[in-house]
Design goal:
The protein contains 10 helices and 5 strands. By secondary structure, the chain is α/β, with parallel strands linked by helices. The chain folds into 2 domains: about 40 residues; about 190 residues, Beta-carbonic Anhydrase, Chain A, CATH 3.40.1050.10. Helix 5 crosses helix 6 and helix 8 runs antiparallel to helix 10. It is globular and about 55 Å long. The relative contact order is 0.11.
């Protein structure tokens, strides 16, 4: 057996060992947990987040398996032609009857950074074009930021805000609201540096609320941009 194959098998064996340890730890806390979990899933939340391995939905929210229905992609983008994302949303809303859809980005997002810096990676460049569209839309707000982490972080926030709007405009959400189903959409952002979520004040429970929340959320981002510029000016 080759050394490479032995290393691979050892790595996979370690994963199974960790899985057994995790399952045993859960059973020590609650011996009926998996029995209950196998009967049905009844989450109140759909989490639409980034694929980044450092941003796991359940752990961030302090919830167990079964509490959160999850969809993840690079840079937590919601596109109206993405049948994968739309199918997840429809199953969550129409079948599971979730009451909250949470779009969560994170500061320092690699996808957002690549889009802002116009880095080239191949196929994914087409996906990141959606983020560049967000940047172009809000160019007047961002023009005073020369670049770096401040620009990326504001873009991470704006990206979440725009994706919440996209969720609200989907037929899945529009139909749910039209039939009077209880459903709210929220925009959060997560910091890997301290493990905390921030509310971007982009929450709506009806079509009528979306525009007003959008203006409030954008005003907050603009304020952070202006504050950053003020800090730079005072340091000169």
């Amino acid at each position: 057996m080759s050394e490479k194959k032995q290393s691979t098998e050892a790595t996979i064996a370690e994963l199974f060992a960790k899985n057994r340890n995790w399952a045993n730890a859960i059973l020590k806390e609650d011996e009926t947990f998996f029995q209950r979990l196998s009967q049905q899933q009844n989450p109140d939340y759909l989490w639409i987040g980034c694929s980044d391995s450092r941003v796991p939905a359940n752990e961030i929210l302090g919830m167990l398996p079964g509490d959160v229905f999850v969809h993840r992609n690079v840079a937590n983008v919601v596109v109206h032609t993405d049948l994968n994302c739309l199918s997840v949303m429809q199953f969550a809303v129409d079948v599971l009857k979730v009451r909250h859809i949470i779009v969560t980005g994170h500061y320092g997002c690699g996808g957002v950074k690549a889009a802002v810096e116009r880095q080239k990676f191949g196929l994914i460049d087409n996906w990141l074009r959606h983020i560049q569209d967000v940047q172009q839309k809000h160019s007047s707000c961002l023009q005073s930021l020369e670049g770096g982490s401040a620009l990326v972080d504001r873009m991470c926030e704006l990206n979440v805000i725009e994706q919440v709007v996209n969720v609200s405009q989907s037929t899945v959400v529009q139909d749910a609201w039209a039939r009077g189903q209880e459903l709210s959409i929220h925009g959060f952002i997560y910091s890997i540096h301290d493990g905390l979520l921030r509310d971007l004040h982009m929450s709506a429970s009806s079509s009528e609320e979306v525009h007003a929340c959008y203006q409030v959320a954008l005003a907050a981002v603009k304020e952070r941009v202006e504050r950053r510029c003020g800090e730079l000016d005072s340091g000169c």
